[in-house]
Amino acid sequence: MGAPEIEAYLNHLASKRNVSASTQSSALNAIAFLYRDVLKGEMPELDKLRRIKRYKNIPVVMSSQELSSTFLYMHGTTRLMAELIYGTGMRINECMTMRIKDIDFDLRTITIRAAKGYKDRATLLPEVLIPTLCNHLTKVAQLHASDILQGNGFVPMPNALYKKYPSASQSLAWQFVFPSSVTRPWQDSEKMARWHASPSTLRRAFKRAVYQAKIHKHVGPHTLRHSFASHLLASGTDIRTIQSLLGHKNIETTMIYTHITADYKNVCSPLDQIKS
Length: 276
Hints:
single chain; 276 residues; mainly alpha; DNA polymerase, domain 1; hpI Integrase, Chain A; 2 domains; two-stranded antiparallel ribbon; globular
């Protein structure tokens, strides 16, 4: 397999399969990995490769009224998850994997560990959610105490820390804020560990609430993160601060929200001028 065959395959994806630019890039990266790490050779030059142009879209954002209507149709834990994502700008997986020890009620902050790019960052803890979150954590502590009484209460630890700190895997501090309702076998023993809740639980609840609220936008839980950034920008928050809260590596990624919040208040449509 040389340059002509690779070009034929990648161009076939572009012209016949009609795939996205990211799919073609993934195929190209896989072939590059084959040459570099498996065959230990050089990737041939692809002079006749036709790259698919990336479609630049503006993120969908929900208004404050749409968010309020959606939250009204959510209840219990899934509502708390959704409100936390909107109130902090977290990604859905960052919300699911959050630990109790990462919440600082005194400083009103949440530390997000090993986020995208494997970097830690701090974000806001919405003050309005503190009472609800405290009540939720009380229930989590009760569930953990029940697991401990049964000889379990373990939680998976990052980077094999359970070997260095064996007792930490049973501590309340390391438990997930949103634990799973079921337990799974711990390592190769007969002990049981409790992982975090599945993101699909929130996705289903959010989709149902959006339908009940009669919102006809193509939205999901990640839209809450977009709305967080857009609403902060509209309220006058500095773009660098928003970049830090979102955990974006490049400011260009955050700048996309400036296209959403463009100020059209003083712009009048020419049709309105004719009709008036």
